[in-house]
């Protein structure tokens, strides 16, 4: 009986030691820094208050290891849903410390123990209108920066979403873009943004965003260096050799005649 009691005590001590070691090995999240990262990367889908826009509500989390669960979800995403993978190891832009900070902010702010980080304000920038495009690209710039840039990049050259600064094929690229923005792409991380599909954008905002996307310019391709001038071609070389041979023969003839 006494031996069994000692085994139980030893087991409890080892378990506690393992738990402490695991906790020490985890990164400590900074909720204040996480608030800035949340606004820059997460609020566009989950809302500045965590109540959801095109992403899930983040108000309540069951379980006792909330931060660990959040970190895993943020890092690896959720396959088949609109939640992408954000960690550097999975092709995203966030480091392990970034993810720990965001998780700390989410678990604190939406439990009421951390103030909510404010959203930035986007002012429309003047963008030239495009022929045969009905949307306003200047107004669309603000819609894009507030809803699309977090995934597709401020210049449309991609971040965790596809590159949008490119030549769009087809006869009606504006209609195609409007449909994709409004309805999303099922089975991918592209959500539906149209109000009719449960999203936050009305038809005018979608039209303006589409016009702005069409105005984006692809990255300039580097000008290829001119080919280095190599040695003369075989044909030119043979001709030159022939000329030199003829001149040599003529020179010899002249020399012998004078002799």
Give an overview of the whole structure.
By secondary structure, the chain is an all-alpha fold. Among the domains are: 27-120, Cytochrome Bc1 Complex, Chain D, domain 2 (Orthogonal Bundle); 137-215, Cytochrome c-like domain (Cytochrome Bc1 Complex, Chain D, domain 2), CATH 1.10.760.10. It has helices at residues 2-25, 31-41, 43-46, 66-76, 96-109, 137-147, 149-152, 173-183, 203-215, 234-258. Helix 8 (173-183) packs across helix 9.
Summarize this entry quickly.
With 259 residues, this protein is mostly helical.
Write the topology of this structure.
Layout: H1 2-25, H2 31-41, H3 43-46, H4 66-76, H5 96-109, H6 137-147, H7 149-152, H8 173-183, H9 203-215, H10 234-258
Helix pairs in contact: 2-5, 4-5, 6-9, 8-9
Keyphrases for this structure?
259 residues, mainly alpha, Cytochrome Bc1 Complex, Chain D, domain 2, 10 helices
| Topology order in helix (H) and strand (E) letters | HHHHHHHHHH
Q: Per CATH, what is the topology of the domain at 27-120?
A: Cytochrome Bc1 Complex, Chain D, domain 2
Q: How many E-type strands?
A: 0
> Helix tally?
10
Q: What would the average pLDDT be, to the nearest integer?
A: 82
The biggest beta sheet reads: none
**Strand-residue fraction?**
under 5%
Shape type: elongated
Per CATH, which architecture of the domain at 27-120?
Orthogonal Bundle
Q: Evaluate the radius of gyration.
A: 33 Å
Compute the separation of the termini in Å. 130 Å
**CATH 4th-level superfamily of the domain at 27-120:** Cytochrome c-like domain
Briefly note the structural class of the backbone: mainly alpha
| CATH class value of the domain at 27-120 | Mainly Alpha
- The stretches of 5 or more residues where confidence is low (pLDDT under 50) are 1-25
Q: In percent, how helical is the residue content? A: 40-55%
């Amino acid at each position: 009986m006494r031996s069994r009691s000692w085994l139980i005590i030893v087991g409890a001590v080892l378990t506690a030691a393992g738990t402490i070691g695991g906790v020490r090995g985890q990164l400590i999240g900074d909720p204040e820094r996480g608030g800035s990262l949340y606004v820059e990367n997460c609020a566009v889908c989950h809302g500045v208050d965590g109540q959801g826009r095109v992403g899930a509500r983040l108000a309540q989390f069951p379980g006792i290891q909330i931060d660990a669960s959040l970190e895993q979800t943020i890092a690896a995403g959720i396959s088949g849903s609109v939640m992408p993978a954000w960690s550097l190891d999975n092709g995203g832009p966030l480091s392990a410390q970034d993810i720990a900070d965001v998780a700390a902010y989410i678990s604190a702010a939406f439990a009421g123990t951390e103030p909510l980080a404010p959203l930035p304000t986007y002012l429309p920038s003047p963008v030239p209108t495009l022929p045969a495009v009905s949307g306003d690209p200047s107004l669309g710039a603000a819609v894009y920066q507030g809803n699309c840039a977090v995934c597709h990049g401020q210049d449309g050259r991609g971040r965790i979403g596809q590159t949008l600064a490119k030549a769009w094929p087809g006869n009606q690229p504006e209609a195609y873009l409007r449909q994709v923005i409004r309805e999303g792409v099922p089975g991918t991380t592209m959500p539906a943004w149209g109000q009719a599909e449960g999203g936050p954008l009305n038809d005018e905002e979608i039209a303006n965003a589409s016009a702005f996307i069409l105005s984006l310019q692809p990255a300039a391709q580097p000008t290829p260096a001119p080919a280095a001038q190599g040695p003369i071609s075989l044909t030119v070389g043979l001709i030159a050799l022939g000329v030199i041979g003829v001149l040599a023969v003529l020179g010899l003839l002249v020399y012998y005649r004078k002799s």
